[in-house]
Amino acid sequence: MRNIVLIGMSGVGKTTIGKTLSKVLDRRFVDTDELIEKKTETDIEKIFSLYGELYFRKLENQIIDELYQEENLIISTGGGIVLNDNNIVSLKKNGVLILLESSIENIVNNIKKSETVRPLLNDERDLHIKTKTMCDSRKELYLSAADFIVCVDGKSIDEIVYEILRKCVKINS
Predict the structure, then answer these.
(1) What ranges do the domains of the chain cover?
(2) What is the pLDDT along the chain (173 residues), one digit of tens a residue?
(3) Are 47 and 33 in contact (CB under 8 A)?
(4) Residues annotated within a binding site for substrate
(5) How far apart are CA 16 and CA 60, in angstroms?
(6) In b/e form, how buried is each residue of 118-148, taking b as 16+ CB within 10 angstroms?
(7) Pick the CATH number of 3-172 from 3.40.50.150, 3.40.50.300, 3.40.1080.10, 3.90.1150.10
(8) Coil, helix or strand at residue 146
(9) Which of 11, 47, 108, 153 has its CA 20 to 30 A from that of 139?
């Protein structure tokens, strides 16, 4: 069975949705950022501060190269996964890419409530502007990578999961 890969902006809810989806489908859940942290034995924030974004993207690509060969996974990706075409090509070989979309306001609220440190969105003073700028710059990449789009605004986790399942059934039939 093909992997279900969740893509979208940081703070859109990929990890939360992915964990619920994995329980419903009884599939293994993996988060690419968590795998990078395990592999390097350090957190994402430290990787960015010590080695920079380019090094992080290299690690991210290595993780994707390992993951796409597996089956029956629910994969939550980092928000910048679409910045490297090779990641998308690899993930599409054995996966259905679901873009989770949300309003900037919803993403900013999620980031503020979350304990997750997001190195590219860590300044609360300019969070709305930075989030909008990042979202605008990645929008076309997300849209071109996605097999399906699910808007998460105003929906419960169960409603979002149900919509993903409906869309995945269509692709498998």
Answers:
(1) 3-172
(2) 789 999 998 889 999 999 999 999 999 999 999 999 999 999 888 888 898 889 999 999 999 999 888 999 999 999 899 999 999 999 999 999 999 999 988 877 766 666 655 454 555 567 777 878 888 999 999 999 999 999 999 999 999 999 999 888 765 54
(3) no
(4) 33, 57, 79, 138
(5) 20
(6) bbbbeeeeebeebbeebbeebeebbeebbbb
(7) 3.40.50.300
(8) coil
(9) 47
Binding residues: 11-16, 33, 57, 79, 118, 138
Ramachandran angles phi, psi of 7, nearest 5°: -120, 160
The H-assigned helical ranges of 124-156 are 127-145
3-state secondary structure of 22: helix
Q: Binding site for ATP: what residues are annotated?
A: 11-16, 118
